[in-house]
Amino acid sequence: MTRTVYLNGDYLPETEAKVSIFDRGFLMADGVYEVTSVLDGKLVDFEGHAVRLQRSLTELDMELPLTRDELLDIHRELVRVNEVVDGGVYLQITRGAPADRDFVFPDPKETPCTVVLFTQSKPGITESAAAKTGIKVISIDDMRWGRRDIKTVQLLYPSMGKMMAKAAGCDDAWMVEDGFVTEGTSNNAYIVKNGKIITRGLSNDILHGITRAAVLRFAAEAQMEVVERNFTIEEAQNADEAFITSATMFVNAVVEIDGHKIGDGTPGPVSARLREIYLDESRKAAI
Ligand code: PDD
């Protein structure tokens, strides 16, 4: 089935959606994005993603060219026409396509933003092999820029990190800065020790994950102790459990770090419980 995608006000077959070679997303990675997961044909945590999108745009002096309700309608329409049951909606907004390449931002009145949305169908996403067995990660230096709280489309280093993990026979990489884990290449990172859930606090160093916020809320509601502080790879290797969260992986156990097994090398009870609570609650609240 040819996907229907959204581009600047139009719903088009994916093969007909074209963006200018002068688009600043293409030339300068001057754009932001969001990935909202879809479960049972409904959007998970749309509100959180809409709020973070607005924040990313504001930080980059860009204006959201659509209202929150228009955004929601576009998400829903794409899910409907593409018959997505499980998967996600990708949204990207760039600073548009000026007449020529220039480092200086174009006047937004003359150069409207480019808005792209498309769906990704992933049937059975909640029953993935990664969820059952857990994933293996390697550690790499965090070489990204200093505003990781803004969800920009500058994904070259995270992409290289995934390739380094793949070359090492692993699934992903945790990035380390000044001796402490920042986050995964496309997810937030956690460890569990003596029942305590430990994860780095929010700052410009990491993306403020929407799944993270939900999972920490559910953990507190379930009387689980959460500590927001830095941790090292060594501490993670000696933890009882480790896991990641993201809109595409939900809560997923990490069972090996740099070749060192975590616990008995299988997904532990805390991450399994959080995954179950997260999926149950997300399904209930999805719109
Ligand atoms: N990535 N940290 C980074 C660097 C991320 O790229 C992501 C999400 C997260 C988790 O955020 P959230 O819970 O809001 O998905 C943390 C998306 C899924 C992606 O790039 O595909």
Explain how this protein is built.
The protein has about 290 residues and is of the alpha+beta class. The protein folds into 2 domains: about 5-125, D-amino Acid Aminotransferase, Chain A, domain 1 (2-Layer Sandwich); about 130-285, D-amino Acid Aminotransferase, subunit A, domain 2 (D-amino Acid Aminotransferase, Chain A, domain 2, Alpha-Beta Barrel). The chain has helices at about 25-30, 45-60, 70-80, 130-135, 155-165, 210-220, 235, 270-285; strands at about 5, 10-15, 30-40, 40-45, 85-95, 115-120, 135-140, 170-175, 180-185, 190-195, 195-200, 225-230, 240-245, 250-255, 260. The strands form 2 sheets. Strands 7, 8, 9, 10, 11, 12, 13, 14 and 15 form a 9-stranded mixed beta sheet that branches. A 6-stranded antiparallel beta sheet has the order 2-1-6-5-3-4. Helix 6 packs across helix 8 (about 270-285). The two termini are about 25 Å apart. The relative contact order is 0.14. The model has no long low-confidence stretch (mean pLDDT about 95). Bound molecules: N-(5'-phosphopyridoxyl)-D-alanine.
